[in-house]
Write a structure and sequence with these properties.
The protein is an alpha+beta fold and about 300 residues long. The protein has 2 domains: about 5-85, Phosphorylase Kinase, domain 1 (2-Layer Sandwich), CATH 3.30.200; about 90-285, Aminoglycoside 3'-phosphotransferase, Chain: A, domain 2 (Alpha-Beta Complex). It contains 10 helices and 12 strands. The strands form 3 sheets. The protein has a 5-stranded antiparallel sheet, covered by helices on one side. Strands 8-7-12-9 form a 4-stranded antiparallel sheet, sandwiched between helices. Strands 6-10-11 form a 3-stranded antiparallel sheet. Helix 3 (about 105-115) packs parallel to helix 8 (about 230-240), helix 4 (about 135-155) runs parallel beside helix 9 and helix 7 crosses helix 9 (about 250-270). Mean pLDDT is about 90; it is low at about 295-300. GO terms for molecular function: kinase activity.
């Protein structure tokens, strides 16, 4: 299979010396483009059905400009759905030191910086905010309703569905305490955190799920999808993040139930059944006075 031409997305005068395919899937193919006398670049080429993701990625990285450790957009070819980005050093954390908690402090610092970017409304981000909502309570009611419907459609047990629905209503005073939407990564786990050979964090990638929302839902997703029951990782993440807002802990606990439903539905959809019973046990425990341990793993992207 021949490689595409990268001329339209590269800075003037660049000479390509080598192209290495770094991976891909249904959304895009990733290339490392090595240049004569210059740092290599990453070029992402989106598949036909996912061209809108290219515009979203460019928009979100523009919003994040100035935050250390994120790629910078170098060029874009919208006709062929290709974007060139600066290449950050390192490899995904889960390929290097998956049991080391020290990087989580840096992840918390990154989220704190990201959450200082205020947004005009709650909602899913494309190049603007899709179906914008003015308040967090309305937004989270809508999200819980949709996720609960998907959970039941995927065969989720009625008792868990009903218990989570009740807890979501009980938690509405905490949800309403959010003082405004911020930019959320919405997929910050060890696969999207780069580290060097010593385990030092070198960057953060993959903003394709970015959301304008309560910052606590971002922390909750990292805890539920990635940290699980590791007290050391959670402590490091929160130490890096800093003081939580009013009812922050209560909101995290509530949003973890939402993300556990999301993770159960995702695993069910791809036939990955091993974590499903544990997730249901955790949800039942959380709904009846316990707390979620969490199930680390590659969740929906």
């Amino acid at each position: 299979m021949s490689l595409p031409s990268f001329d339209a997305v590269l800075p003037d005068g660049c000479v390509v010396t080598e192209v290495v395919t770094r991976g891909g899937g249904s959304l895009h193919t990733v290339y490392e483009v090595r240049l004569a006398g210059a740092e290599p670049l990453i070029v992402k080429r989106y598949s036909e059905g996912w061209r809108w993701k290219q515009a979203k990625e460019i928009h979100v990285y523009t919003l994040m400009a100035g935050i250390p450790g994120v790629p910078r957009v170098v060029g874009a070819d919208h006709e062929r759905a290709m974007t060139a980005l600066t290449m950050l050093p390192g490899r995904p954390k889960w390929d290097r030191m998956p049991d080391d908690a020290s990087a989580y402090r840096r992840m918390g610092e990154f989220q704190a910086a990201l959450h200082r970017i205020r947004m005009p409304a709650y909602g899913y981000i494309v190049t603007g905010i899709l179906e914008p909502v003015a308040d967090n309570l309305t937004f989270m009611r809508r999200r819980f309703a949709r996720q609960l419907d998907e959970f039941r459609a995927a065969g989720g047990p009625v008792d868990v569905h009903d218990a989570v629905a009740r807890r979501a209503v009980e938690g509405e005073p905490y949800v309403a305490a959010c003082d405004g939407p911020v930019l959320c990564h919405n997929d910050l786990h060890e696969g999207n955190v780069l580290v060097d050979d010593d385990g030092t964090v070198t960057g953060f990638i993959d903003v394709e799920n970015a959301l304008s929302a309560d910052p606590m839902t971002d922390l909750a997703k990292t805890i539920q999808f990635d940290i699980g029951g590791s007290a050391a990782k959670r402590a490091a993440l929160l130490a890096g993040y800093g003081p939580l807002p009013r009812y922050g802990a209560e909101r995290i606990a509530l949003y973890r139930m939402y993300h556990a439903l999301e993770l159960w539905t995702w695993f069910s959809s791809i036939g990955h059944t091993e974590p499903l019973p544990g997730l249901l046990d955790d949800l039942r425990a959380a709904c009846f006075g316990g707390s979620l341990r969490g199930t680390p793993g590659r969740g929906p992207t």
